[in-house]
User: What shape does this take?
Amino acid sequence: MEPESDRERWDRKYAAGEGPAHFRANRLLTEHRHLLTGGRALDAACGFGGNALYLAQAGYRVDAVDVSSVGLARAQAEAARRYLQISFVQADLSRWWMPDERYDLILVFLYLNRDLVPRLAACLRPGGLLFQANRNRRFLALRPDFDPGYLVEGNELTVLAHDAGLEVLYHDDGTGDQPRTSHLIARRPMP
Assistant: This one.
């Protein structure tokens, strides 16, 4: 029997209502909405599209990319219900072509591909922002069977951002009621 592909795994999870099966925006985004200035945004690994919906309502032109057709179908239906224009793309982000300096804002929530960070940084326009949130090693206390390769170490998001040439504006490795999630906001410097 062949191993389940990422697309099959996420389609199954979303069909079962597992994962972030809702249309709410990530709190990192809503708590830092004062940084949102409009333009073009990419919601990478968008799932059900709660962040893409939030940005479209705020006036952004949004590209929402995910490997799961199930997640995208639900996100598209919700966007249509709200009369929002969002470009939904089914693609594996590790293989999807991303144009340089296209986006003013890129979101990456609960998707970790360390090799993708430099590519995402190149997709930001000068002054553009990267918002990222990933589970950290404390998540193993809840789910000891979770693959640690998908968890960040302390300060790892900051190191990844710096290595990609980004300026860190905000970082935490889990606080308050989200101790198992690390957060980052970084900016591509102006020339």
The two ends are 52 Å apart (CA to CA). The beta strands are 40-44, 61-66, 86-90, 103-109, 124-135, 167-172, 181-187.
